[in-house]
Amino acid sequence: MSKQAKPRALPENEAKCVARMLRVSPQKLNLLAQLIRGKKVETALADLEFSRKRISVEVKKALESAIANAENNHELDVDDLIVSEAYVGKAMVMKRFSPRARGRAGRIEKPFSNLTIIVREVQSAA
């Protein structure tokens, strides 16, 4: 009486991780997504480790989660993984108001973002 298992959306050589509700604007997060897109995972981790951006800690955590998913859930070889996709989406925006001169109010928007990282196993040319 249980429902049917949902078929796997990704190919067999891919694994993904989604980090939701990151407290940074999508434009700023996309700079880090561009930094790691298409690189080997060791290089991408090193780039994020030495990045000076505040959110790079969260992006590094998401990439490590995608690597762990590939290794533990899908039995992929960690040494052959590359970051095939890294894209950013908008989440909610908190609206706040700050008092301004002459009784007015200034609107402050505090955006949140979603980050999706997909790693793929490529066959090493050895």
TrEMBL record:
GO terms for molecular function: rRNA binding; structural constituent of ribosome. Gene3D superfamilies: Ribosomal protein L22/L17. GO terms for cellular component: cytosolic large ribosomal subunit. InterPro entries: Ribosomal_uL22, Ribosomal_uL22_bac/chlpt-type, Ribosomal_uL22_bac/org-type, Ribosomal_uL22_CS, Ribosomal_uL22_sf. Keywords: Ribonucleoprotein, Ribosomal protein, RNA-binding, rRNA-binding. The keyword Transit peptide does not apply. One of its GO terms (biological process) is translation. It comes from the Bacteria. This protein binds specifically to 23S rRNA; its binding is stimulated by other ribosomal proteins, e.g., L4, L17, and L20. It is important during the early stages of 50S assembly. It makes multiple contacts with different domains of the 23S rRNA in the assembled 50S subunit and ribosome. The globular domain of the protein is located near the polypeptide exit tunnel on the outside of the subunit, while an extended beta-hairpin is found that lines the wall of the exit tunnel in the center of the 70S ribosome. Belongs to the universal ribosomal protein uL22 family. NCBIfam families: rplV_bact. Part of the 50S ribosomal subunit. This is Large ribosomal subunit protein uL22. The lineage of its organism: Bacteria, Pseudomonadati, Pseudomonadota, Alphaproteobacteria, Hyphomicrobiales. The gene is rplV.
